[in-house]
């Protein structure tokens, strides 16, 4: 079970203070040591009163963007058997309605919340967001997302010097230390008896990366939405990549890549991961025209190892399933959620 960082601790304290002001309700946080199966939960919130008591494992989030909100609901649903309680600095009404719809409990520092776990039924809504000063959360920023991505791809990297991690992640050297320390505080990186560092909870680290990528890094990478120029169509796209001899330069992601990873998918859109210095030239070579609602999204590659280790049957490079899954969630299309779940089960599931 992850341990809360200083920033998360501040959220916990603010929520407990608000709860303890309510008559007949006492709250306290209990740090967790173990939880089976391993998860990104950060301890337990114990609520007591004359009505009895309940103890709920907590999942902590902050500054929730619209893209992160969709992923957050998805992750909490996967933990439904443990009855997770979301703690956040602020839960917007749009997210609150989704949590209600899926019968997920939450509390925020403003005082809003919903808990329907007998014998406690708690409901407060409509309170506006206040300015809550929080400590920097480096692991959820762009550089943090790049660093965690490299750790997920090469778990042994966490034992390398910070300079090596920075070079591999293409971030400033000074960004590495704070991110590693946050991951250690959350007990996602642990040292063994021989002093060797290792990832303790791979699934929890991946979920942390998904939130960071969708909320911070992914919006900065998008270049353009495009459509195919006449007379070409979306179905011609794989052929055009081969015709222009771009198999080694273009990474196919999104729905089109998912159709190679999973069966019975008829792709209607694609994400192309292109090198920053070649994106415009390759768009012209592939007969792509800017279009606000085009079916092809162009984004920059943020690392040299964004590709999956295997190619498609046609010899095309596919983006890492980590990225493909996030692109499906980023699209905010409900019909792609089951495909994202299938990708996780087929390619991203790991034994802790």
Give a written overview of the molecule.
With 352 residues, the chain is α/β, with parallel strands linked by helices. It is 37% helix and 20% strand. It has twelve helices and 15 strands. The chain has helices at residues 6-20, 66-78, 93-101, 142-153, 162-169, 176-185, 202-221, 237-243, 254-261, 279-285, 321-330, 337-348, and strands spanning 26-30, 44-49, 52-61, 85-88, 105-108, 113-117, 120-124, 189-191, 197-199, 222-228, 251-253, 270-274, 288-290, 296-300, 317-318. The strands form three sheets. Strands 1-2-3-4-5-6-7 form a seven-stranded mixed sheet, with helices on both faces. It has a six-stranded mixed sheet with strand order 13-10-14-12-11-15, with helices on both faces. A hairpin with a 5-residue loop joins strand 8 and strand 9. It starts with 5 loop residues before the first helix and ends with a helix. The model is unreliable at 34-38 (pLDDT under 50).
Overall pLDDT metric = 87
Give the total of beta strands.
15
Q: Strand pairing plus helix content: what structural class?
A: alpha/beta
Helix count from the secondary structure assignment: 12
Beta-strand percentage? 15-25%
Distance between the termini: 12 Å
Shape: globular
| Helical content band | 25-40%
Biggest sheet layout: 7 strands, mixed
The gyration radius over C-alpha positions equals 22 Å
Can you write the helix and strand succession as a string? HEEEHEHEEEHHHEEHEHEHEHEEEHH
In the sheet with the most strands, the strands line up as: 1-2-3-4-5-6-7
Give the low-confidence spans.
34-38
């Amino acid at each position: 079970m992850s341990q809360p960082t200083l920033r998360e601790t501040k959220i916990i304290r603010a929520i407990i203070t608000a709860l303890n002001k309510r008559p007949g309700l006492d709250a306290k946080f209990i740090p967790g040591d173990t939880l089976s199966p391993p998860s990104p939960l950060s301890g337990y919130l114990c609520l007591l009163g004359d009505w009895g008591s309940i103890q709920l494992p907590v999942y902590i989030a902050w500054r929730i963007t619209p893209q992160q909100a969709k992923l957050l609901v998805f992750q909490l649903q996967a933990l439904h058997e443990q009855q997770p309680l979301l703690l956040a600095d602020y839960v917007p009404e749009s997210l609150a309605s989704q949590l209600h719809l899926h019968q997920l409990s939450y509390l925020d520092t403003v005082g809003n919340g919903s808990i329907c776990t007998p014998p406690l039924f708690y409901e407060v809504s409509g309170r506006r967001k206040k300015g809550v000063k929080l400590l920097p959360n480096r692991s959820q920023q762009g550089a943090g997302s790049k660093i965690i991505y490299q750790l997920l791809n090469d778990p042994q990297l966490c034992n390398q010097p910070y300079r090596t991690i920075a070079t591999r992640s293409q971030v400033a050297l000074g960004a590495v230390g704070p991110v590693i320390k946050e991951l250690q505080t959350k007990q996602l990186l642990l040292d063994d008896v021989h002093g060797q560092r290792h990832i303790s909870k791979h699934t929890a680290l991946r979920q942390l990366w998904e939130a960071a990528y969708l909320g911070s890094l992914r919006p900065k990478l998008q270049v353009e939405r495009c459509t195919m120029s006449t007379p070409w169509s979306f179905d011609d796209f794989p052929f055009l990549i081969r015709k222009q001899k771009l198999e080694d330069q273009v990474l196919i992601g999104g729905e089109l890549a998912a159709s190679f990873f999973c069966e019975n998918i008829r792709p209607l859109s694609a994400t192309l991961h292109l090198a920053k210095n070649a994106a415009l030239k390759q768009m012209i070579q592939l007969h792509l025209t800017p279009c606000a609602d085009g079916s092809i999204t162009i984004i920059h590659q943020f690392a040299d190892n964004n590709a999956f280790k295997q190619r498609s049957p046609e010899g095309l490079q596919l983006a890492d399933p980590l990225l493909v899954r996030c692109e499906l969630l980023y699209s905010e299309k409900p019909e792609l959620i089951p495909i994202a779940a299938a990708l996780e089960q087929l390619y991203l599931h790991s034994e802790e």
